[in-house]
């Protein structure tokens, strides 16, 4: 169910007049960047690999002429991994990205690192080395020092997903390459910042069987796994459903009955995002958004006039942590003062996608709108 691994999501060329002058996607498909993050309502970044920045809420964008693969916003700081030839350089900004400083110490990584940050001082880098062995580095002093944590893995992984809830609470997912509609999965948690790990669930045939997690369906995209708290997490599976746990990853079940999710079709599922332990959003193509306000126990459906524009990610506002902003693969949105207006006027510029706690949830761009209901 959903798309096969490696199958592209539907995508259409952008209209030349949609984005302000200087935005990297103004005249064609978004080949230069793949992700977006906003640190404040005004300060945002489009990256992966090219880096563009805005400091006026998306009205104008500046080409930074750098290659950046990772950005994480946490605790008033912005962390980034910049590509300098074949080296990964860890950088940090404490002025909303107007200036950047390399971390005082640069950890030696055996593979290209992914980045997770929980505060201005605490972050983790993780990568698969040449032997497919995990390398996990952590700092708790803003990058002045790094220490290597013990790998939790009992089997080799095709992909890794690390999430931090607090400096001490971590989730780690190891998945196999996937075979047809099946994939091995291991779920680990840590309550001491990654120093020690507990295997919560494992369906790998060569490892100790523990917990309960389905082998059907595959986790392939970072935007399809989210940890909402130290005990709850959500995983969107290609050729499967969205599953959830409320016991720190030991047992998993469908978050929403698949008949309701699929509505009789074969939709593309994800992404999923949570602003806190209670408030979350789950997108199902081509035109439905599910929302929960009780940690995934109940989900309301919102029907959206999205055609076949599938969100690439949903990211959370830093200045308003209970509001999520959706980033479809063909559009970018910026914060707007009209977030709680149930019938906002259509505008010629990029507008906010505000998926808020208000019953008047909506997002709007020229010719595109989503109102709560269903």
Molecular structure report:
With 374 residues, the chain is mostly beta strands. It has a domain at 14-149: Neuraminidase (6 Propeller). It has 1 helix and 28 strands. It has one helix spanning 258-262, and strands spanning 35-38, 44-47, 50-54, 62-74, 77-84, 87-93, 101-102, 114-117, 123-128, 134-139, 147-149, 159-164, 170-175, 185-190, 198-202, 225-227, 233-236, 242-245, 253-254, 269-274, 280-284, 288-292, 300-305, 311-316, 324-328, 353-354, 362-365, 368-371. The longest helix has 5 residues, at 258-262. The relative contact order is 0.11.
Please give the structural blueprint.
Blueprint: E1 35-38, E2 44-47, E3 50-54, E4 62-74, E5 77-84, E6 87-93, E7 101-102, E8 114-117, E9 123-128, E10 134-139, E11 147-149, E12 159-164, E13 170-175, E14 185-190, E15 198-202, E16 225-227, E17 233-236, E18 242-245, E19 253-254, H1 258-262, E20 269-274, E21 280-284, E22 288-292, E23 300-305, E24 311-316, E25 324-328, E26 353-354, E27 362-365, E28 368-371
Antiparallel strand pairs: 1-2, 2-3, 3-4, 4-5, 5-6, 6-7, 8-9, 9-10, 10-11, 12-13, 13-14, 14-15, 16-17, 17-18, 18-19, 20-21, 21-22, 22-23, 23-28, 24-25, 26-27, 27-28
């Amino acid at each position: 169910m959903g798309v096969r691994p490696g199958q592209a999501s539907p995508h259409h060329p952008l209209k030349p007049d949609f984005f302000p002058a200087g935005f990297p996607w103004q005249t064609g498909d978004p080949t230069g960047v793949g992700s977006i993050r906003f640190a404040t309502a005004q300060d945002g970044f489009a990256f992966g690999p090219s880096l563009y920045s805005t400091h006026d809420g998306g009205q104008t964008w500046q080409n930074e002429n750098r290659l950046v693969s990772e950005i994480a916003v946490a605790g008033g700081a912005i962390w980034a991994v910049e590509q300098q030839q074949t080296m990964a350089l860890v950088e940090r900004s404490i002025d909303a990205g107007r200036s950047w400083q390399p971390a005082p110490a640069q950890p030696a990584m055996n593979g290209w690192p992914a980045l997770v940050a929980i505060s201005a001082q605490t972050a983790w880098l993780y990568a698969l080395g040449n032997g497919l062995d995990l390398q996990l580095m952590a700092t708790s002093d803003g990058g002045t020092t790094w220490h290597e944590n013990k790998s939790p893995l009992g089997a080799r992984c095709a992909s890794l997903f690390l999430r931090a809830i607090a400096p001490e609470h971590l989730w780690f997912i190891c998945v196999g390459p996937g075979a047809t509609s099946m994939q091995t999965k291991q779920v680990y948690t840590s309550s001491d910042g990654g120093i020690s790990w507990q295997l919560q669930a494992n369906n790998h045939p060569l490892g100790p069987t523990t917990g309960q997690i389905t082998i059907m369906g595959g986790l392939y995209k970072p935007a399809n796994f989210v940890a909402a708290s130290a005990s709850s997490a959500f995983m969107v599976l290609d050729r499967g459903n969205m599953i959830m746990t409320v016991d720190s990853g030991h047992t998993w079940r469908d978050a929403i009955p698949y008949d309701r999710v699929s509505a009789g079709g074969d939709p593309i599922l994800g992404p999923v995002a949570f602003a806190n332990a209670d408030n979350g959003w789950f997108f199902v193509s081509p035109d439905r958004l599910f929302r929960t306000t009780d940690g995934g126990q109940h989900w309301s459906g919102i029907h959206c006039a999205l055609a076949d524009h599938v969100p690439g990610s949903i990211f959370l506002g830093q200045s308003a942590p209970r509001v999520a902003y959706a980033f479809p693969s063909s559009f970018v949105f910026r914060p707007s003062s009209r977030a709680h207006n149930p019938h906002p006027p259509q505008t010629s510029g990029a507008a906010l996608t505000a998926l808020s706690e208000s019953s008047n949830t909506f997002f709007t761009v020229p010719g595109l709108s989503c109102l709560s209901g269903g």
